[in-house]
Amino acid sequence: MITVEEYLGATGRALDGMGGIVAGLGDELANVRPPVQGASSPYALLTHCLGVVGYWAGGLVAGRVVERDREAEFTSSGPVAPLLERVRQAREQLAADVRGADFAGPLRTAPNPGFLGPAGIATQGAALLHVYEELAQHHGQMEILRDLLRPKEGIRRGTGVKWGAVGPDTIGAWVADMDLGVAPAVRHALLDAVDREDFGYPHWPGGDPVPAAFEAWMAERHGWEPSAGHTRVFTDVLQILQVVIEQTTRPGDGVAIHVPAYPPFLAAIRRSGRRIVPIGRSPMDGVRLLVLVNPQNPSGRVFRRAELEALLELAERYDLPVLADEIHADLVYAPHRHIPFASLGSRAARRTITATSATKAFNLAGLRCAVAHVGPADLRAKLDAMPPDIFGTPSTLGRLATVAAWRDGAGWLEGLRATLTANRATIGAWASGMPLRYREPEGTYLAWLGGLREPEPAARLERTALVRLSEGAEFSEGTDVETGDCVRLNFATSPAVLTEILRRLTPKVGQYCNGS
Q: Which helix H or strand E contains 240, and what residues bound it?
């Protein structure tokens, strides 16, 4: 049993919490219905909750005549301020109704059979319990709606390198982390493990859940059904590249890759004693591995089917395994579509190692969990013959987060994609007025900007504009490809932070550009 004041405290917190979320979203976002099946707008959900309080507490408990259109509640919209005033009034009225209730007494009026609610409610106390249950449930739903519509703007917190490696007055827009929170499903999975203090040696009844989650996600999102038994779990995609290099090539061999390319990939090739061979720029002599990054980092290019088929012909001509890094596959903008390289057919599948992770789309880089779907039978045999612990293994938390993302994170991802789409449009509008070389990315949350005449332009912009970007020269290091006049900008942040980034960059970019 709880006291009246405890009841009012709990229901009040739920109403105030929902009101605070609606107030924080403002008139525009509060009236938006997220692109998730069955979701209401925050405004409509709060309106529904007021309908629940008014009908169940005011009508059935207090005996007032209550006119209610339940269906209209879920389609309602309007300015936030009057709705918040209704919340304040509803709290006051609920307090009066609860204090005047006879908890063991019968309902003052009979429930409308057309309204949904638990069967068998016959007392005022049971009706008030239903009010509390509804408010608690919808408060949780409101938090999810908030995260779908405006992902958290978590910046300058924790130990993340994106913000920890810059000065207090500098905005980080370089390393490919997002400032937009994580999916509620991921958060709940991690907090549940923490609540259980479940950090011992893991046991997975039925086997490691990561491969099954990956296979289901690829089939549903990208129309490709990975072969059962071909998926291996690693800590990250860079580790997969290093393992594949060691198992498929020898020192001195060439590794073909599109340049500019993700700097750690170039470094991994060089450090292993292999040669970087830029695709389309250098002869393929001595090449023993082809690395395809699709969507491409840093350009944001999403390869078309004809382009992928041309790469497959190249791989067949030189009998090359293909490592397809598809980590940005879920961050592609319409009308473009990601096509898994292994889905081109059995010829492609037999020579493709598909490397991916939930870390980019779901903002989980520090949790370290990735998968490799290994098509080549000889490579699977080599990997399986290695000592079982030589490659290490992701933690329990990394696995739990990955599975939660791929199984239950699709709704959150759609909200995130809407935010990134809007931010991409902001970048495009800004760049169109600047003397930059710029092509709108078709995937990723990375903008590749060229035409800056200053040496080391990213370093110069960090000093003068207090915005840290990635240095373009790093994306072609060790090759004869020239990218020194480029910078990479990460736009996976809040619209407000992005606006401030562009405000700071505008005068300096205009000054440093050569206009070519």
A: helix 237-248
Tens of pLDDT, residue by residue over 462-504, are: 999 999 999 999 999 999 999 999 999 999 998 889 999 999 9
For CATH 1.20.120.450, list the domain ranges present in the chain.
4-149
Length of the chain: 516
**What does the pLDDT average to over 109-135?**
81
Long-range contacts made by residues 84-89, C-beta under 8 angstroms, separation at least 24?
Answer: 84/19, 84/22, 84/23, 86/50, 87/15, 87/16, 87/18, 87/19, 87/46, 87/50
Residue 515 has pLDDT above 80, yes or no: no
Q: What is the pTM of this model?
A: 0.73
Q: Is 501 helix (H, G, I), strand (E, B) or coil?
A: helix
Give the amino acid at 79: P
Instruction: Determine the Cα–Cα distance for residues 400 and 206; give it in Å rounded to an integer.
Output: 15
Q: Which residues, listed in sequence order, are joined to residue 61 by a DSSP beta bridge?
A: none
Distance (Å, rounded) from C-alpha 137 to C-alpha 155?
29
CA-wise closest residue to 77 among 113, 46, 111, 37: 46
Distance CA 439, CA 448 (A): 7
Looking from the CA of 255 toward its CB, the CA atoms found within 13 Å total 32
Q: What is the pairing mode between strands 322-325 and 171-172? A: unpaired
DSSP character at residue 56: I
Other C-beta atoms lying within 10 Å of the C-beta of residue 112: 14
Fold classified for 161-181+411-512: Aspartate Aminotransferase, domain 1 (3.90.1150)
Which superfamily does CATH assign the domain made up of 4-149 to? Answer: dinb family like domain (1.20.120.450)
Q: How many CB atoms lie within 10 A of CB 81?
A: 9
Confidence class for position 114, pLDDT limits 50, 70, 90:
low
Distance CA 398, CA 150 (A): 25
